[in-house]
């Protein structure tokens, strides 16, 4: 009876072929695919904001974070199962680079294009939320919550944001590995959902999610009604400190670096060392399974 998953060794071998495919995609396809991933992550972030905006006073911060993680789990399901290119998942291209299949230029070029595409997709969702006036819901409390999340994220220290970025993408890339190993749709969905729920509930930081969350807060607070609600809820805050400089320097840059470290080294590097380095294909069946994994991953475009 055929198994419905790949072993870790077979999955790692399959990623070598995936990296070759991703780096040879035409630039317009990379941009469009990564635009979709940015939008998918942003949909999940907006859902999380709406669902949790009034939960903490009723159920506590911990349970509210857990529910936020549960609903945010749709993000990687859309990215990995529906298909698109996400920067954090593409840090696993390090496996192909370590194996000598990819050059440094190929990896950096892909990362740059995907990062830009993710950012564009995220900002498109910011425009959608602003134009749709969703943030004015429940007496502008939804918008105020969007601002509050952004404010807290931009007031982390560099080291806090960096380490939270490491924790996040360690889990996200493990989700990518699990989805690639799965050979049926429900297995892939479960594999994508659980690690993402864990990183959100834990309070870790994802650079692409923050490409939506922090600009959303920046835009939402330009509405005087929303800004007033924020100050009523948090009278000691200085909203002027939530700005583009804080977005990039206090959050996006350190979080991105942390995401790269965990994805490229703690998952990609270690899996390459354990299962690819100095190994030979064990059998024709392994090759067949690798091909199956490659085709599944190609459709998923992690």
Automatic annotation (TrEMBL):
<feature type="transmembrane region" description="Helical">
    <location>
        <begin position="193"/>
        <end position="214"/>
    </location>
</feature>
<keyword id="KW-0812">Transmembrane</keyword>
<dbReference type="GO" id="GO:0015499">
    <property type="term" value="F:formate transmembrane transporter activity"/>
</dbReference>
<dbReference type="InterPro" id="IPR023271">
    <property type="entry name" value="Aquaporin-like"/>
</dbReference>
<comment type="similarity">
    <text>Belongs to the FNT transporter (TC 1.A.16) family.</text>
</comment>
<feature type="transmembrane region" description="Helical">
    <location>
        <begin position="61"/>
        <end position="87"/>
    </location>
</feature>
<keyword id="KW-1133">Transmembrane helix</keyword>
<feature type="transmembrane region" description="Helical">
    <location>
        <begin position="30"/>
        <end position="49"/>
    </location>
</feature>
<dbReference type="Pfam" id="PF01226">
    <property type="entry name" value="Form_Nir_trans"/>
</dbReference>
<dbReference type="InterPro" id="IPR024002">
    <property type="entry name" value="For/NO2_transpt_CS"/>
</dbReference>
<dbReference type="GO" id="GO:0005886">
    <property type="term" value="C:plasma membrane"/>
</dbReference>
<protein>
    <recommendedName>
        <fullName>Formate transporter</fullName>
    </recommendedName>
</protein>
<dbReference type="InterPro" id="IPR000292">
    <property type="entry name" value="For/NO2_transpt"/>
</dbReference>
<feature type="transmembrane region" description="Helical">
    <location>
        <begin position="252"/>
        <end position="274"/>
    </location>
</feature>
<keyword id="KW-0472">Membrane</keyword>
<feature type="transmembrane region" description="Helical">
    <location>
        <begin position="108"/>
        <end position="130"/>
    </location>
</feature>
<feature type="transmembrane region" description="Helical">
    <location>
        <begin position="161"/>
        <end position="181"/>
    </location>
</feature>
